[in-house]
Amino acid sequence: MASGQLSRAEALACSGCRHACHVMLYSDTKTQLFGRIPIKHIVLMQMRFDGLLGFPGGLVDPAEESLEAGLSRELLEELGVTLPVSVEEHVESCYAPTTSPLITHFYRKKLDEERIREVERAAASTATDHGQEVLGMVRVPLYSVKGEEGGLAAFLSHSFIGIARSQLLDSLLCLGLLSPGELHKALTHALKIHTHSTEDLKAALTLTEAKRKHT
Ligand code: APR
Ligand code: MG
User: To which CATH superfamily is domain 4-213 assigned?
Assistant: First the structure.
């Protein structure tokens, strides 16, 4: 077990810990971008209220409900659909890098493509959290475009909540949705994009400072 990780049973035995459960929903697809780039798999994430990318789910109190029932309840609020989650879909539990003790439980659930589309439609229409705790569901682009810097590399250069980025990367490898070589290439380009972004932000800051001084 990797450092910081604990079994589901150990996690539940932790007194005074808060618990959060999140799930990666995914499916296979035969569709192609621009009619020529195979999309291969749909992986759902969300733009959270805090501007960070993460997986759907949320806080669960195991004294009141099972982790999986709590996760299903959160999914109904955030996605507007009833999606049962089972113990078999649990992947890992680990301590979150937060000030108060929090254990995050991660699950993966495979759906068929039509069900994923239903989830996306409901998330933008009937879900009670839409526009509030959840700003929108997003698909992870698993391909590369525009000389490798577009697609997965650009997506990975965004900001993620907690360990969501590594949960995504581990899942892509573990499920064989991407090869280690493809992932390595995307991460190399993501780092380059990150450097550009830092320069962009510094330039924007200088501009704003100059404007601020003139008002
Ligand atoms: N890895 C690690 N920690 C995560 C991850 C992740 N992938 N995703 C979320 N978290 C953390 C968040 O930082 C948060 O502290 O888990 C906690 C709960 O997850 P949320 O999905 O944010 O919880 P939710 O119940 O949907 O929303 C409640 O309302 O009161 C606010 O700030 C509070 O974030 C909380 C939100
Ligand atoms: Mg949430």
Answer: Nucleoside Triphosphate Pyrophosphohydrolase (3.90.79.10)
Kindly state if the Cβ of 128 falls inside 6 Å of ligand 1. no
Q: What's the pTM value of the predicted model, to 2 decimals?
A: 0.94
CB 55 less than 6 A from any atom of ligand 1: yes
The amino acid at residue 141 is P
Q: Is 104 in the pocket of ligand 1 (CB under 6 A)?
A: yes
Mutation probe of ligand 1 site: the residue of 133, 137, 163 with most atoms within 8 A of C-beta? 133
Q: Is the CB of 70 under 6 A from ligand 1?
A: no
Predicted confidence (pLDDT) per residue in 72-106, tens digit: 999 999 999 999 999 999 999 999 877 788 999 99
DSSP-derived secondary structure for 59-116? EE-TTTS-HHHHHHHHHHHHHSS-----GGGEEEEEE-SSSS-EEEEEEEEE--HHHH
Q: Rounded to 5 degrees, what are φ and ψ at 149?
A: -80, -15
Q: Which sequence spans correspond to the domains of the chain? A: 4-213
Length reported for the chain = 215
